[in-house]
């Protein structure tokens, strides 16, 4: 049977819809819960698997969604406050609105507080507020304390009533599938690339013009809203709420689901919810019989199981399932919407050759007692290649960070396109036309070369999250991908565009970084050791490319160890030693400078050799 995974998915959904009415009540209930859990887990896939932020506290957001509607539907205060004759059937929808609003507010606040925490402090922070919200539910009298609220009405829409799993289940699964579709679209867009870039480290993402703090909060809010939506449906399925299902150990279970299913994969959320829910059913039946007493033993079994899964299948089960099913599934050959006509991306007019684009004035950087940069002056002009050289530890990387917004000078001034820039984040450098590569390559290894390079054009697009989710971004996306492909071909990697970046040789990965920088249409290009790891022919090709870019009017600053490469290519050279500039001039002038020859001691052969 040769069908694609897409067709299989659609067939599965159709089959489920057909037999739904024939399933026993108990199965329908379990299926409905799986859908509810998967909705929360899908948010966690986005947050944890894609965005790299771990949260144990999602159950609290489910609770906000559930309690909001429970309160609205049952509170005499609400009934008194609403206009007389307000149809009671609309109360759950008011509850949904309130739940989403409250969750939005709480998630924004908690996000702005906790997401600043780094490393293990972030998950610990989520445990802290997860517990707090649980106890708030339990201790608020208006929410019924630990007894909760009973007597919720069923969801109704016109004359339709969704009172039982038979009717509410399809709504739940409909919402889930819609959410998966929207999230899938989001990940497959300009904004999705920016979200994935969060995992590549803040420095890289910010250099591509992504406001990482903003994206982290947005992702956090998105996951929270999905949880609240699940809570709203849950409340009207269960028809009563109490704090127990919103406790921190349920929060841990949600994370189990995402991780076991495959934290980087949306369908992994469904698989994880399915497995954990069924397993929990079984364990709750069997464990008390085996152990002869009742208690939450399944949580211990879960913990052990999670360890095993993470040991054996670090990426969760979904990629395994995918890999295994690939044998008998036809690959999806969906083209990126050939019918749309690409829009024109934002273009930058490059400054005329010879104009100063990047300038440092007396830039110093102190690390404790060490003066890593000592009043460094340097200018980069449009249409020139400027090389920064110096022995190891001379302060080149420190300076590079200072003029690209990664670090702030202790004193001195950095100007880009005439604007004073010290203290500003690197995304503002990117906005003004600075493109850069990294000494230690920072690519998303699992993503294709094309995707990596397209991230470089992030700033040139406009479409936001909602447009991406609804697929309204296709014309712009086509333009971005076309631009990325153009830069890849120009850099000589056209054949490798669809390969995962990590499968390329290190030297090629450096070139991918150059292509990524070029996709942002920079005026100033900063390259940290671009020739390292390149073979002789590749170095020559790189020199030809940089020469071409120079003639197009780019200003290029290279930090490089390969003297032959530098001497043949650079128009001007600045030499650093112990953080200070000891020489500046043309390659010929620098090579004749006795201080430079001294500084290089053993390396003087290198210089002389390159001169010959
Ligand atoms: P280069 O790139 O020329 O090899 P660097 O700029 O990396 O030199 O380092 C210059 C000096 O500053 C070195 O002595 C290094 O140990 C020191 N240094 C660099 N970064 C830091 C830091 N974050 N904290 C403390 N010292 C640093
Ligand atoms: Mg360095």
From TrEMBL:
One Pfam family, short name: ABC_tran
- Asked whether the keyword rRNA-binding is assigned, the reply is no
Matching Gene3D superfamilies: P-loop containing nucleotide triphosphate hydrolases
Q: What GO terms are given for molecular function? A: ATP binding
Q: What is its main location?
A: membrane
- Every ABC transporter domain range: 358-603
Provide the leader sequence positions.
Answer: none
Q: Establish whether keyword Secreted is in the entry.
A: no
**Location in the cell:** Cell membrane
Tell me which domain of life the UniProt entry assigns to the organism this sequence originates from. Answer: Bacteria
Q: Which UniProt keywords apply?
A: ATP-binding, Cell membrane, Membrane, Nucleotide-binding, Transmembrane, Transmembrane helix, Transport
Membrane topology, from the record: Multi-pass membrane protein
Q: Where are the transmembrane segments?
A: 34-53, 60-84, 90-107, 157-183, 217-235, 255-278, 290-310
The name of this protein is Branched-chain amino acid ABC transporter ATP-binding protein/permease
Q: What is the species of this protein?
A: Curvibacter microcysteis
